[in-house]
Amino acid sequence: MSVWSRIIELASSAFEPDEPAPFEECAPQPGDVGFTAAVIGLAAKMAKADGYAAHVEMEAAQRVFRPPPNEEGNFRRAFVLAQQTVLGFESYARQIGRKYRNRPCLLEDVLDGLFHIAAADGWVSDEEVAYLAEVARHFGFSEQEFRRIRATNLGPEAGDPYAVLGLLPGASMEEVRQAWRRLAADNHPDTMLARGAAPEFVVIAKEKTAAINAAYAAIREQAAAPAD
Fold first, then answer.
1. Nearest to residue 208, comparing CAs of 227, 185, 176, 175?
2. Which of 16, 146, 162, 192 has the highest Cβ tally under 10 A?
3. Cα-based distances in Å from 126 to 129, 130, 214
């Protein structure tokens, strides 16, 4: 068995919960090594998207994919091998998108993990955002859905809290409340814990929940403010 095959077999626990039910819709099919290989390939190639692959990005990927301690060296070697070029990332993204289009929460988990790895060196470059936008497109997410995923991971642009809730400015307060309730429930850390997600994804869920609650509070404050 090659180093790469061994690593993708071991790393599958990052997205496969110990007890799949009742969260099967957010996990890949059991034993889907192709899925795990594609995700690790996307992570490694994204680290090269801005032309410089930082060591901290590899360390972040290692925390997300959780290889056993005695396999960390093999994981790093496989990651370095995959990140030599960004070429070929579209085929990875299309492969996952076609197979799991009906499991959007799984695909969003993948994007969250990629954003987390991209931000590990302290900032996310325009090239990395463009790479992630292309991955999201192949996953089947609309521009507005990617805008929301980006905003919950990086913060809203130009102080637009509607982006975090996946809404356009001018949405009614009822639409705002419904979006907030749904996203707060879907991204709550307790939900991730119940799914058996990796610890790094629980951290991501806490950050996303804080962003979702802050956006809802900001919109409510705007709505309550007297008109000039």
1. 185
2. 192
3. 5, 6, 25
In the chain, where the domains are located = 1-141, 159-228
CB contact set of 124 (below 8 Å; sequence gap of 6+): 115, 118, 154
Q: What are phi and psi of 20, to 5 degrees?
A: -55, -45
What tens digit of pLDDT does each residue of 46-65 get?
Answer: 877 776 666 788 888 888 77
Q: How many CB atoms lie within 10 A of CB 158?
A: 5
What integer is the mean pLDDT of 118-123? 85
Mean pLDDT of 67-96: 79
Cα 76 from chain centre: 20
Instruction: Give the pLDDT of residue 14.
Output: 62
Domain 1-141 annotated CATH 1.10.3680: yes
d(CA 221, CA 161): 11
Residue-wise pLDDT tens digits, 162-206: 999 999 888 999 999 999 999 999 999 898 888 777 788 888 899
Burial zone of 159 (CB within 10 Å; 0-12 exposed, 13-18 middle, 19+ buried): exposed
Name the CATH superfamily for 159-228.
DnaJ domain (1.10.287.110)
**Mutual orientation of helices 33-46 and 72-82 as an angle, nearest 10°?**
70
Q: What's the rounded Cα separation, in Å, for the pair 99 and 108? A: 14
